[in-house]
Amino acid sequence: xxxxxxxxxxxxxxxxxxxxxxxxxxxxxxxxxxxxxxxxxxxxxxxxxxxxxxxxxxxxxxxx
Length: 64
Description:
The protein is an alpha+beta fold. Helices cover 20% and strands 19% of the residues.
């Protein structure tokens, strides 16, 4: 499941956390929220960011 979580601290600082987005898909999916929330102060990549995304997986056919 793909999730974007927005966490707002009592001081008004916001933090975005994404889950279920392989590779750079997380940045694409959350870009509109980053623009709406304002200035970015840090960015931490998760293990999901470093996953390889298959662009066009090849379907293997089995001959009988």
